[in-house]
Queue: 2 jobs
Job 1
Amino acid sequence: MGMRWEHDTFAILDQTILPHEEHWLICDTIDDLIEAIQRLAIRGAPTIGISSALLLATLAIRGASPFELARDAARLRKARPTAVNLINNIDRLVEKIDSPNYPESVIEQAQAIFNEDRELCDRIADNGAALIGKNERILTHCNTGGLATAGIGTALGVIRRAHEQGKNPMVWVDETRPLLQGGRLTAWECGKLGIRHSIICDSAAAMLMQGGEVDTVLVGADRIAANGDFANKIGTYSLAVLASFHEIPFYVVAPSTTIDGNCPTGAEIEIEERGMNEVRGVPGVEGTCLWAPKSSPAFNPAFDVTPAELVTGWVLDGGVYTREQYIQNYQEKSSL
Ligand code: MRU
């Protein structure tokens, strides 16, 4: 897990320098956390939402007034635009600011958000692991493990549960350009857990699928629209197209807290665009190592949208859904 909350101290594991250094950064202020979220020292849809709730609770413990907390929450809510968990968790916390019980109301809510994510991860892992056969070769993208959640992860949590069940999965770890969350973080987590894995260049996925070396693709999500389209790390859409062409099952794995009921389709999801140097270079312990001409323009969308028709199933905490079941389930919930 990439967060530590000890009463009035909140710290994050700096994911920009993993796997080379395990360095915990104390976040004392909203500016500290916004900066950490924006430079991806802390990342992954559930983690950025949960860390925001925990820091707001920390500030409440330290004596922030309801007015100050609401003002800070409004700033944090805009730290990154694509992951709906950030917005949802902050909104859930803000609902408790006006309670006569403040600050306990806010502290309890943050604790509940944290505990909830751990439980959702466990349920997702059980649901997803049931889909995995013995010795399956699973391709995954970005990092969706313990670093990206409060629990065991989403797509990587499924792989971990299958590993614990003795199914001996093998993971093709997409390096995940430009910031290498797969090659740095997923490989690190797999190594610690003793899960068989091999890092590949993102562009090697097609060749592996063509050669029959991939049994399943499991990816996470930053926001799932009401029609099942979803945004995830840039490169996910191309994997979905490839999996469809090669008739390989392609699952999106996420907690129900990543579903955005106000977003009818993927077209309405805001896609974060990041700095050009992330594409012009690669991240290193001492910052970005640039290898492209500094004057060459670059385009750096952080996420893409995969259309629902390319998805075999939605692995959520409530179960594994086909497209029809996902839409029906969503509509039933929203009409309550
Ligand atoms: O830019 P990042 O590293 O925050 O992107 C993360 C992803 O795309 C993950 O797949 C997603 O947030 C799900 S994490 C459980």
Job 2
Amino acid sequence: MPQTIHILPELLANKIAAGEVVQRPASVVKELIENAVDAGATIHTIVTKNGGKSFVQVIDNGCGMSEQDAAVAFERHATSKISAYEDLENIRTLGFRGEALASIAAVAQVELRTRQKADEVATVIRIEGGEVKEKSKDAADYGTSVGVRNLFYNTPGRRNFLKANNTEFKHVFDVVQRLAIAHPEFRISFMSDDDSVLDLHPASLDERIKDLFGERLFESLVPFHDSNEAIEIRGYVSKPDFSRKTRVEQYLFLNGRYIINRSVNHAVFQSYEHLLEKGSFPFFILFLTIDPHRVDVNVHPSKMEVKFEDDRSIYRMVLNGVRKALMAHDLAPSLGKSGYQDSGSGPRAAYGGPIPVHSWQDLLGPKTSEMVDRQTGEILPGTELPDSPFPTPHSALPIPESPFPIRHFPVWQLHNKYIISPTREGLMVVDQHVAHERVLYERTVEHFSGQTQSSQQLLFPQTIDFVPGDAALVQQLMPHLEGMGFVLKSFGKSTVVVEAVPPDVRPNKESTILQDILDLYKENEHDVKLEPRENLAKSYSCKAAIKAGDPLNEQEMGSLLDQLFATKNPFVCPHGRPIMVKVTLTELDKRFGRPV
Ligand code: ADP
Ligand code: MG
């Protein structure tokens, strides 16, 4: 078949190219903000409607454009930032590819208003689907405003890929938040659907971090700073016990540009060595300053990936810099060792190492069988209690309400992590955390379906101030949270008073459980496409469940096993991990060389 090759019309080419630069409202906001920063603006106003799907506007007080420049700004490859190949190797601006405005205008309805300080009137250009519809003059403040309506109005296929308003809002929020971290000296206002989401005044970095993430998180941060002739690193990392269950809160900036770089993230993570619990990630803000000649930021149109000339020395510098800072903060004794060492005596002393066996009692673990009267569940006098995280009379599990009888066969706890119990065919080893997770998960699903309904009323309601992004998420999830047993009252935009929590929340956790759930919820949102209630049930059960490391007494273990076996699936946790491992007598017999 004869083929004819032809050059695509410019409008179509722009529409195709737009796909690389503009994926969603947040990418529009990112590009417009970058232009404002490059224009030297110090005041940035961001306005969105419907998560940015129907409207995005960025207003700045930067240098503005002349009438002439405004007319060409929407052309493809139109840029004032570089002019020769050599410039590409020395990029000091956020933009340089000259394709953002052309790409945005190809897939939306755009209005540009721009005025340089010296000019009397502003130039106004209206452009739709890449076609200029109107050029005029108007009175306006100096600086630039770009309004973008109905993103992807002419590319329905792409429009259909956009997510719910609040998801798109969250992405926009992340972009604005990154600007706010990179430039605490900027005045930034962010309005969404006529609500003020952020209203930040110029501040120091410390103050800005407090404004965005709250005092509590700030207190948990350790500053670091290091430099040599080629590289400077500075920023904050969280102390290990304030680490997050999500990778999302890792902010890395290279010469003022937010970037994603696995190697640097890994270096930060590594500097904690064994200080982090498995599955935890440090919160960090890291500013890298490197001579632009030594990095290539022109790897992808979104400009978030970069190539370093010398990956390894950056890795080493971050690793050492962060490690030094952590060590200076009294965390040194644990660093460099292969785990925590406990100096106490008894089985706990060997935690993390092989158990020295002196007697059968050592093999069986703590003398749990002597501590609790099996009939009454009472603690026998003269028994030394392990330091339980559950102050009496509360208990890890709501034992008094348990409809199940207390077991009459023995249970042991292994390394405060696994429960061992004989079975008819041999023995089972149960992971206490995932077992409890399964129990709570099913209970939460029951709550949602309205089969049961209960709450723990708090004697002292807890007031929680959320950062704006989380406040929006709480509002969005409010009906579901109430379905779980939370009783929440909103005060203003970001303050929530917790009056009651679900029945299984442990004492001392009332004030943190909601934030914990939100953190995990956000992480799950990134990983998998989960229905909100399913995500909440998973996040809640993981966060409210007893943890590895929590000592349990015999009664608590017995009750947990009873409740586990009353669930629909006692063998697999909601995330698909096994809950128990069984070892049969036949297997043991084989291993001991007994004739089977
Ligand atoms: P790039 O930023 O890569 O140069 P853009 O398409 O984003 O490409 O912008 C094209 C040009 O329009 C910029 O180089 C700049 O000269 C001008 N421009 C865009 N936005 C602004 C703004 N907010 N203030 C001043 N000039 C701007
Ligand atoms: Mg740009």
